[in-house]
Amino acid sequence: MNEIINKLSFYMEHSFVRYALIVGVLIALCSSLLGVTLVLKRFSFIGDGLSHTAFGAMAVASVLNLTNDMLFVLPATVICAVLLLRTGNNTKIKGDAAIAMISVGSLAIGYLLMNLFSTSANLSGDVCSTLFGSASILTLTKAEVWLCIILSIIVVLAFLFFYNKIFAVTFDENFAKASGTKAGLYNLLIAIIIAVIIVLAMNLVGSLLISALIIFPALSAMRIFRSFKSVTICSALLSVSCALLGILISIIYSTPVGSTIVAVDIGAFALFSVIGIIVQKTGN
Amino acid sequence: MPQLECRNLSLGYDSKVIVSNLNFSINKGDYLCIVGENGSGKTTLMKTLLNLHSPISGNIITGDGLKSNEIGYLPQQTIVQKDFPASVKEIVLSGCQGRCGLRPFYKREEKNIARENMKRMGIDNLSSRCYRELSGGQQQRVLLARALCATRKLLLLDEPVSGLDPKATSEMYDIIEELNSQDKITIIMISHDISAAVKYASHILHIGDEIFFGTKKDYLKSNPGGQFTSNERRNEK
To answer: Are B45 and B110 in the same domain?
Structure first.
């Protein structure tokens, strides 16, 4: 035990570890907040779809030799998110099919572009780190950390400010619209926020594992809690603690950060499911 | 002046007309039942009245102090709601959302309105229970309480008794009847249940190949009314 604590305090002296912890916790918090809404709206896979879009956009950006690819990736992802979550689901191609299409399509195009125009010597390494996040969270610059902090604050404030409206729109969009709530506007807001979170989270867990950050805390919380407020609060707390634990474990045992966090999330889900079953049995 | 009036209304999706030349008006305190076969455009009409769809042509005019967003709506249950983790209180309170505008939180006054409506529906003892664990009849009361938070003037009910057992069905009809007669709330109800429509409604709108609008008495004498009710009788035998 002492050895572990020594090792941790040794790592804590490095700024890149502290950065990773700050960014990891913030992203976990943001993604879990909207996770509840997305799971309930049957958009669990939007994280996956949008992160692949971001991957494709990143490939385009690197082909175009843009110095700051964030400026291209973020708007492209936002546009896709808006298209996917467009109000009413009255589109010709339905939700899940649309997500699958965009997801696979941008993954393929992104990889194709990277392959055709790549300047880097280690192509498969590049692709792998974009998909799985591998070490990029440990190479964050100070500017990136600040960007992440500011965007997270905006996301959390927007969520708190629009909490009741997000609830109304998620529970019953038609009723909300009929009684004078601008449901389309709030759907747009949710889409933009989720796109921002995903672009941020790509550094942490990579594009393949973002869905896990979004859906696992929400699903775990729903095993036990019975009201929207308690589910949201629980999922935020759970997500933050899982991210913290995951990053610490990955530092101590030098495992890949992204997949360790997701593994911890899966563990928490199993634990919550068992507790949920026990609570229900004893309740009846 | 009628609360709600439809003039030469044509309804449909993607410019495909389902119903055309619809004319009817509803006065305060009326109880209108909309009947017709599946696919005849009942739900489309309801969505148009709620401003969720725009009509292909014609006008919907609100009057008598009714604004177009002051229509309370009891929708049919969606799949999303089946496993939605939300307490009864949260759902009923969300009926007040339309009054909030940009204000992020509910006022004390709105919380009181929600509490009163829960009492009115007899579900105040369930306020912290989870919606998905309630029975079908209780769930409908929750949604009705929510609709009452949005308005005290006009309620639109989309097949309010579908999926309910006979006891819950008759309780639901009693509640609606009470809201209409005691609280003077105008009711527009879509229903498959023609016998209940004839029993409770003051006016009937039949849509389909032949459109009929008028009082219940006239409806029973009319062509579509006669057909519909004789079908019912045949089914009962």
So the answer is: no
End-to-end CA distance of chain A: 42
User: CB A180 to CB B104 under 8 A?
Assistant: no
Question: Distance between CA A242 and CA A214 in Å, rounded?
Answer: 12
How far apart are the C-alpha atoms of A99 and A91, rounded to whole Å? Answer: 12
Cβ of B90 and A174 within 8 Å?
Answer: no
Query: 0.80 exceeded by the pTM?
Result: yes
Residue B107 sits at the chain A interface (C-beta within 8 Å): no
Three-state DSSP at B24 gives strand
Fold of A2-203+210-283: ABC transporter involved in vitamin B12 uptake, BtuC (1.10.3470)
- The residue among B82, B97, B110 with the most chain A CBs within 10 A of its CB, best to mutate, is B97
* 8 Å CB contact of A228 and B100: no
Domain ranges of chain A: 2-203+210-283
Nearest-by-CA chain A residue for B104: A161
d(CA A141, CA B182): 68
Tokens for B157?
């009910």
* B13 and B90 assigned to the same domain: no
Residue B94 touches chain A, beta carbons under 8 Å: yes
Closest to A191 (Cα-Cα) out of A1, A16, A53, A29: A53
CA distances (Å), B98 to each of A60, A209, A275, B139, B232, in order? 43, 38, 38, 21, 40
Query: Does B20 contact chain A (CB < 8 Å)?
Result: no
Residues B103 and B86 in one domain: yes
pLDDT in tens, chain A (284 residues): 777 788 778 877 777 788 888 888 898 999 898 888 888 887 777 778 888 888 888 888 877 776 666 778 888 888 888 887 764 455 566 667 778 888 888 888 888 887 887 666 666 666 666 666 655 566 677 877 888 889 899 999 999 999 999 998 888 888 888 877 788 888 888 888 888 888 877 766 677 678 888 889 999 999 999 899 999 999 999 999 999 999 889 888 888 888 888 899 999 999 999 999 998 887 65
A154: helix, coil or strand? helix
Torsion of the alpha carbons at A19, A24, A29 and A32, rounded to the nearest 10: 160
* Partners of residue A228 in chain B, C-beta under 8 Å: 84-87, 90
Query: Rounded to a whole number, what is the largest CA-CA distance in chain B?
Result: 57
Residue labelled with tokens 């610490």: A248
Q: Does B124 touch chain A (CB under 8 A)?
A: no
